Amino acid sequence: MENRNYRIVFLRVVLSILMLTLIFRLFYIQVIKGDFYSQKAVEQKIRSFKILERRGEIYDRNMIPFTDREYKEYIFAIPKMLTDKEKAAKVISEIAAVDYEDVLKSLRSAKDYVKYEVKFNLNNKLPIGIFKLALPQRYSQNSLAKHVIGYIGDKKMGLEDAFDGILNSKREDSIAVFTDGNNTDYIKGLGVRLKTSGKEVLGVKTTLDYHIQKAVENVLDKNMVDGAAVVLDIKTGDILAMASRPNFDQNNIQAYLNSSNEEFINKAVSMYPPGSIFKIVVAAAALEYNKVNLQDTFYCSGSYDINGIVFHDYKGESHGVINMVKGFAVSCNTTFIKIGQITGAKNILEMARNFGIENDDGLPIPEQIGRLPKLSDTYGAGIGNLSIGQGDVLMTPLQAADIAATIANNGVRNVPRLVTAIVDEEGKEIEKLSQKKSYRVISEKNAKILKEMMREVVIDPEGTGKRAETTYGSAGKTGSAEVSKELNIYHAWFTGFVPFDKPKYAISIFVKNGDTGGTKAAPLFKEIAEEIMKY
C-alpha cells in the first residue's frame, strides 16, 4: 500500500514538473521571445527586392557630406500586387511622364517591380501595389570637388576609387512584400515596407571645407577659368579647397570619354611650367645659403645674354639698378638670372626639393610630383631657365600653394593632406589617418624677409601683383610661364597668402593659357581671398 502511495506521489511530482516546464516554455516563447518568433514568422512570409546599395559618404572636415546630398522621388509598382494593371499604367504614365503602353508592357512582364522617376506630383490616391519613395542621389549637378571626390561605376576615380573598399559597405535597402502561406502570392492588403540590412556603413572624412570649396568653385565658374585653384590651411597643411576646370558631370561620364577639353584632368595636381613664382625658391636659396643680401644691387637690363642665348624681361622693360626685393616685386628676369648664377643651380635645386618639388607626399588621389632639371642641364644657359621657372622646371598648383604656406608659416613645411579619418555614420572616428611630419625648410629670419618681399609684390606701385590686394592685406608672387612666344601665350599664376599680418590661408591660382599672372591670376586670388575670409 505504501509503495502504491509513493508511486502516486512520484507521478504527481513528475507531472507537476512537466506542467511547470511546459507553462514556462509557453511563457518563454509567447512572452519573452514573442516578438522574436513573430518576426521570424513574418519574415518567412516576406519577399524582398533590393532597390539600393548603401555606400559610405565622403565628408568635409565638419562632417558636411559631399555625396548623397540630394534625394530624388521615384514611383514603384509591384505588378503581382496590382488588381487593375491598365489603371495602374495610366497613373504611372501621368506621374512619370512616360508612354502608357510602355508602362503597361512592363507591368505585364515577370518583373518583381518597376521604377520610374517622379516628374509630376498628382493628388490622386495611389492604387495598392504602387508607392513613392525618395532615394539619395550619389551625385548631382551641384556636387562640389568633383575632381577630388571622383566617381564610381564601370570606371573609378578620385577618393571614390582610393577608398572603395571602405565605402563599399554592401548594406542594402529593399522593398519587403508579404506573401500567403504558400509563399506564392502577395497579400495585397498588407502593402509593402522598407527593409535595411544591418551592415555597418563607413565614410571618409576629408580636410576640405565645404563652404570654402563652394566659394572657390563659384569664383572659377563666374570667371570661366580653364585652370585650377588650391587653398591650404597654413597652420596644418590641410587642403581646404581643390578645384579644377573645366568640370564634368559625375552622372554622365560617357559624354567626356572622347573629349579633348581635359574635363577629367585634375589640374590642381598636374604639373606645368611655373614661370616667375619659382623666383620664391630662387630667393629662398640665395638667402638661406648666404649668397645674396638685401643690399646687393643688380642692373635690370631688359635682356641678358648667356652663351648666345638671350633672355628677356617682360616686354623688354628695364628697371635700372635695383636690389633683390625690388627685382622680386617687379619680377625682373635678368636680375633673377644673375641671382641664380651667384646662388648656383645645385643650391636652387636642393631648395626646390626641400619645398616639396619632386617629393611624393602620399595623397590618396593621383598626384604629379613636379619636375626639376638635372644639374648637368643647368650649365651655361640652363641656369637662366632654372632661375625664372622655365625650361624643364614643372610644378603643380598644389605645390605652389604649399610653397606660399611654408613661407607664411615662418619657414616650416606642413606636408599637405587630404583625408584625416575613417568615420561611422554618426561621425565617430573609427581610424585616424596619419600625416607626414612637418619640417623646417628655411630659417624664421629668412622666411620673414620673403614674406615682406611677397608683400611688396602687392603694394609696390610697380609690383606685378597689385590686383591681388585685399582689405585683409595680401602677399604673393605672380608668374607668367611662356607657352608660345610667337603667339604671346602664357600660363598665368599667382600664389600667396592672406591675411598678411596673421597668415591663415595659402592660395594658388593657375590659369591655363590665361595671359599674365598679374592680369589674370592675381584678381582671382583677390576674389577668393575676400570670399573665404568671411568664414
UniProtKB/TrEMBL annotation:
GO terms for cellular component: plasma membrane. GO terms for molecular function: glycosyltransferase activity; penicillin binding; peptidoglycan L,D-transpeptidase activity. It comes from Thermoanaerobacter pseudethanolicus (strain ATCC 33223 / 39E). Signal peptide: none annotated. Pfam families: Transpeptidase (PF00905). Its EC number is 2.4.1.129. SUPFAM superfamilies: beta-lactamase/transpeptidase-like, Penicillin binding protein dimerisation domain. The keyword Cell membrane does not apply. Keywords: Glycosyltransferase, Membrane, Transferase, Transmembrane, Transmembrane helix. This is Peptidoglycan glycosyltransferase. GO terms for biological process: cell wall organization. The keyword Glycosyltransferase applies. Residues 227-529 form the Penicillin-binding protein transpeptidase domain. The chain crosses the membrane at residues 9-28. InterPro entries: Beta-lactam/transpept, Beta-lactam/transpept-like, PBP_dimer_sf, PCN-bd_Tpept.
